[in-house]
Amino acid sequence: MLIRRxxxxxxxxxxxxxxxxxxxxxxxxxxxxxxxxxxxxxGQGWFSFGDQKxxxxxxxxxxxxxxxxxxxxxxxxxxxxxxxxxxxxxxNFYEFGSSKNVWQPAQKLxxxxxxxxxxxxxxxxRTVGVDDLLKAMALEERTYRFxxxxxxxxxxxxxxxxxxxxxxxxxPLASAKYxxxxxxxxxxxxxxxxxxxxxxxxxxGLAIDEATNELAMIATGVYGKPLPRQMGAPIRLVVPWxxxxxxxxxxxxxxxxxxxxxxxxxxxxxxxxxxxxxVNPKVPHPRWSQADEELIGKGGTRVxxxxxxxxxxxxxxxxxxxxxxxxxx
Length: 329
Ligand code: MTE
Hints:
329 residues; alpha+beta; seven-stranded mixed beta sheet; five-stranded mixed beta sheet; binds ligand MTE
């Protein structure tokens, strides 16, 4: 985040799996999910993805039978999907290091049991296991654009549930104005968390009206399968009109409050990363332009960035009464 990195995502077309092979694999996985999972647990679950071997990240995940979920036709985009192989190997997850290549160390993260704490200004604080939460929520697939503050972008099919439904499940008090979210903290597993200069755990926040906007989503899966660890398993936030750093991964706590939370990057470098962080091509980051973005896995293709990442029709109204705030950083 703080340093502009080299373009590690630029994989040649030749190493990318044709879409029909990916689709075949998805069908196979759906049919033989249980068998595939047990094979993988025995250490044999590797599949070939182009010329690179990647593990079957969803193997052994108890929520596998819930995927793929029904696709929502309301949330579609006019861009090609980013190749799965690219999206799952080019990640920001500082808990496991500051490079983009964190998928391997991230496999150490244990996904069960995964308890989620709901507290603060709610009728009744409680803890819910992720599998119970999955049973209580309506899962669907939505394809969204995703724009990182570093000026790279992807388009991925998330699976998950509307954050609005989750907020209702939490039963906040009328006095709650914000939701503060926290990632797990376990430096034994997450070597990046041994770096004491970062204010662990990773924290992010939304105003309640943002969280209940129809676009805000809690993702539990991607590409028709449970989320891989490096993309924030078992649950993460997806708010496509904001810069990527708002999309907090591997969440263990939702705290309802009347105080605006200070997020991880704001704490580290408040002059560069703020609370609202809405995408705006006309407002440069202090150290680089935000006018355009590079589509990962597309050989360096750049496209113009859009206001609110193209989602203004859904979200611009949230900010009319907040004009005097620093909405774009
Ligand atoms: N969440 C946690 N817990 N830790 C992180 O380092 N990085 C953020 C966001 N969520 C991050 C995080 C940033 S900077 C980006 S761009 C996105 O995750 C990247 O999501 P992806 O790796 O799934 O593409």
